[in-house]
Design brief:
By secondary structure, the chain is an alpha+beta fold. The protein is 47% helix and 19% strand. The longest helix is centred in the C-terminal third of the chain and has 36 residues. The chain binds zinc ion (ZN) (2 copies).
């Protein structure tokens, strides 16, 4: 596959084989990375950062564990306070009840409207 490469040294565009990591610029004859290589590297780095951000270390033993884990799989130490856990549950249930409340109210209004139409 042929791709357009912008030379890192002189800034001029030229065509080169995209399979190659680096090519020699025909204008200044210096080695420059191809576009596919220039774009693929930050992408891989971003993926690695993303994978890392989902993992954290145990506060007690330092073993790698998921950020979402409530306790350490290595030593069993609780990683979140009970209050934090209860708050999460309360917030989740609050949201569920809010959604169901609004839905229930809408359905009630629809039934009322249907009843009025009849
Ligand atoms: Zn060049
Ligand atoms: Zn641990």
């Amino acid at each position: 596959m042929v791709t357009t490469v912008k030379c890192r040294h002189c800034g001029k565009d030229f065509e080169a084989d995209a399979e190659e990591r680096t090519v020699f610029c025909p204008h200044c004859e210096k080695e420059t990375p191809t576009a596919s290589f220039q774009t693929s590297r930050p992408f891989v780095a971003a993926q690695l950062d993303h994978a890392k951000s989902r993992m954290t270390g145990c506060a007690d033993c330092g073993a790698p564990m998921s950020r979402r884990a409530l306790w350490c799989p290595a030593c069993g130490s609780i990683q979140r306070s009970l209050f934090g856990l209860l708050w999460t549950i309360a917030a989740t249930w609050g949201l569920v009840w809010l959604v169901f409340g609004v839905l229930g109210w809408l359905i009630l209004k629809l039934i009322e409207a249907a009843g009025a139409a009849w």
